[in-house]
């Protein structure tokens, strides 16, 4: 670990020129090589696709992606994505994404077993 990042040595990449040739590429590891998450921490990939429901039981959409802002992460919630007819989010004409801060006063619970996130967020926000 170095500052807020990770320094890694890749096999066959032995100097700066070889490393610079890889600019723009993404690297990853298999899930089994990742450290276990701590209590109330999640890998982003585990949150993507979860249903987002407010305290009133209204479905707001599904997590489409997350943004890193520096201050805190933000859930990008697609309105109506995979939502059944009659749900509040699918009845809205506005199909833009919702941006919800991933902070404790907004996100009340994450339940990976039910694939849902409960939030303190009004359906009209």
Could you characterize the architecture of this molecule?
The chain has 125 residues and is mainly β. It has a domain at 42-119: PRC-barrel domain (SH3 type barrels), CATH 2.30.30.240. Helices cover 10% and strands 26% of the residues. The chain has a 6-stranded mixed β-sheet with strand order 4-3-2-1-6-5. The protein starts with 15 loop residues before the first helix and ends in a 6-residue tail after the last strand. Mean pLDDT is 87; it is low at 81-93.
> N- to C-terminal separation?
39 Å
Total of helices: 3
The secondary structure category is: mainly beta
Helices and strands, in order, run as HHEEEHEEE
CATH architecture of the domain at 42-119: Roll
Number of strands: 6
List descriptors.
SH3 type barrels, six-stranded mixed β-sheet, 125 residues, mainly beta
């Amino acid at each position: 670990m170095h500052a807020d990042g990770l320094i890694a040595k890749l096999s066959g990449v032995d100097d700066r020129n070889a490393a610079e040739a890889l600019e723009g590429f993404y690297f990853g590891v298999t899930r089994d090589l990742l450290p276990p998450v701590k209590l109330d921490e999640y890998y982003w990939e585990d949150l993507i696709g979860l249903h987002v429901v407010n305290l009133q039981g209204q479905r707001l959409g599904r997590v489409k992606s997350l943004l890193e802002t520096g201050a805190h992460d933000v859930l990008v919630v697609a309105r109506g994505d995979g939502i059944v007819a009659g749900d509040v989010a699918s009845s809205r004409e506005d199909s833009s994404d919702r941006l919800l801060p991933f902070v404790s006063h907004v996100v009340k619970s994450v339940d990976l077993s039910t694939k849902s996130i409960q939030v303190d967020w009004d359906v009209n926000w």
